[in-house]
Amino acid sequence: MNSNTKSTGRSIGLFKQSMIAIVVLAVVQGCGEGGSSSVGTDYGQAADSGSGGVDYDHTQLLANLADNIILPTYQSFQTNTVAQTVSLNAYCDALAAGDADLPTQQQSAQNHWKTLSAVWQQAEMMQIGPLSANQHALRNTIYSWPVVSACGVDQDVVYFQQGNINGTQYQISQRTDTRRGIDALEHLLFSQNLNHSCNGNVGPLGDWNIRTDMERMIARCDFAIVVADDINQNATTLVNAWSGDSGYAAKLKSAGENGSDFETSLQGVNAISDAMFYLDSVTKDGKLGKPLGKKDNSCANAVCPSDVESALSAQSVEHIVANVVGFSKLFYGSQSGLADGEGVGFDDYLIAVGDEQTALRITQGLLEMQQLADQLQMPLAELLVTDAAQVEALYARIKVVTDEMKTSFITSLALDLPQTSAGDND
Questions:
Q1: Percent residues over pLDDT 90 in the chain
Q2: 95 three-state secondary structure
Q3: H helices within 299-355, ranges in order?
Q4: 426 and 406 in contact (C-beta within 8 Å)?
Q5: pTM of whole model > 0.70?
């Protein structure tokens, strides 16, 4: 098995590159793209059956995805929030001491952010239960993109330094999502412009731009520690909400049983399927479609580099790859994200109901996504200017998979489309 790992950490082998690839290529050659969007024909007719009324026991699928894929991803994210805080403390200490090793400490803090973000981008594909509740409130607190505010973060750097806002003690837990979370931490760690990002010297920023560079770097670093601690607390909240006898994992695994939140086990499966459509509505449409001008954007629907995700850290492509890894883990039921037979996934479900062809087509599409992403050797914002055709190709390949999800996938498994994708033919 070839993981095809690159030094950038971006290229993570998604699939077993052996006979399965040969079989897939033979099966899917000549297949066209689908574009329609519909509800599975058997949805609601046989609660625990797939297409054609084939009985399928969802228990193993739900248990494997809950215990071996979703919760471990959340736990890994929580662990990385601790490492992020440690690296930030070392960086801030180096700043305060004028340490000659400052660049190394800064790069370490930035690298920990990249690792933390890569895990979170997998978790983005797993917005189920606690992460989707209350209009995704917990998710937005951890990561608010595409709604961000560099100006708000700059204001809170000073509010935190002052210790109060108009006489009220500063508490980051009471601040809006755009002033905290992973995206706020990106601004604090990667922005090379030490001037504030607001139009005019608003709020507490009156003297900010005339402070020394070191004063501003220290102030940003000190606030970054507070932001990182807040992310850790929310990550802990997420893990706790999924853990234990009364946690969401237990509720998901008991779908269809008396007292469960889900009337049928198929409804539990549908909740996971809904989350996987992030690949369609956000990865494809938000992270690629908007910058390409295929969706409404900030540039009057022209190509728009300013709309890419995580432009400051230049991690836009890496985030997309991590989304695909998260999707693959759920699809294959494998913590490695490989079609290695580790656990029960949606590919097994498709095969069980007699639709191996859809499983193979999605497998091939995911493999080609990875291959195309590996060819992107510069940040997405630069590619949009220098070689937009490469970005278009990646968008088109993701669309092949999401079209398959909207048609054969939901039909064969008797699932319903999420509102984000229902009626969307793009």
A1: 79
A2: helix
A3: 316-332, 346-352
A4: no
A5: yes
What is the Cα–Cα distance from 77 to 185, expressed in whole angstroms?
Answer: 15
Rounded distance between C-alpha atoms, residue 291 and residue 282, angstroms:
12
Distance CA 264, CA 255 (A): 6
| Nearest-angstrom CA–CA distance, 222 and 217 | 9
Could you tell me how many helices (H) and strands (E) the chain has, helices first?
18, 2
pLDDT digits (tens, 9 = 90+) for 175-197: 999 999 999 999 999 999 999 99
Closest among 147, 110, 157 to 313, alpha carbons compared? 110
Span 257-294, pLDDT tens digits: 987 889 999 999 999 999 999 999 999 999 999 999 99
Considering Cα of 181, then 183, then 186, then 187, what sign does the dihedral take? negative
- Rounded to whole angstroms, the Cα distance separating 189 from 143 reads 15
Q: What mean pLDDT is reported for the chain?
A: 88
Let me know: does 376 contact 383? Beta carbons within 8 Å: yes
- For the chain, helix, strand, coil in percent to 5 are 60, 0, 35
